[in-house]
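Study this chain:
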Amino acid sequence: MRALVEACRPRQWVKNLFVAAPLVFAKRLADAQPSLRALAAVGLFCALSSAVYLWNDIIDVDKDRAHPLKQKRPIASGRLSIKTARIAAATLAAGALALSYVLDPRFAACALLYLLNNVAYSLLLKRVVYIDVLSIAGGFLLRVAAGAFAVRVEASPYLLVCTALLASYLGFGKRAHELALAGDRAAAQRAVLQSYKAGVLRVALWATAVTTFVSYVMYTRAEHTVRFFGTTRMLWTAPFAAFGLVRFYTLVQTPKGESPTEEILKDGPFVVNLLTWGAATTLIIYLR
């Protein structure tokens, strides 16, 4: 059981907090029913993402065994059998989809698209340079759209744009991190890495970082944002966004660990900045 839980990668479930973003930015966090629906939606996406991680590890078992860190994963190391992983993945996916439909049919449609996107990623898209990162970004967009349907609010275009850009930034960072760690064994560990160039990835990282920050600032200053929140103080959170983007880039340039998204959550300055941004945003939105 411990190996199965580990294979579901609970540390990665933090990404599913994007599902709750529409609840927060729609000013519904204090409403009991939407909050409970958002909590259920986050839980269902945790089940779906766990099924995806199990599926990916089954597909990538041979490549994981060639990786100095991933070879320790439950399936690659043999601590979790492929048969057990298949049964668990199918159960989690089927159960989450069924409950998603009960929550909201539109939410269920997003959940299904999320699964299909990840299956396509595992079988094909992860081998296509740059398309693999767009597929990752698509998964984050589907999380936000699903969250909006779950709490029955409209997702802001700015929220969707910022999510897509931020997810692309994280995706390029992940590839840069993998490329730096893999060295001469890049192709053996992930085939698409042989098509990426470190210099091009640095440009892509800077480009997506700048456009993400500019989009966020535009959101804080947009007429709809000021009118909806009744304040211009959302702009005060921009420095936290800038620090987070720069800090992630810094950690990507000094690669260690299995994934930069995991390492960033172990980084004290980044975590403090993230929590401060969350607290400041909540106070500005809800305690004017």
The domain at 1-155 is CATH 1.10.357.140 (Tetracycline Repressor; domain 2). The mean pLDDT is 88. The chain has 15 helices and no strands.
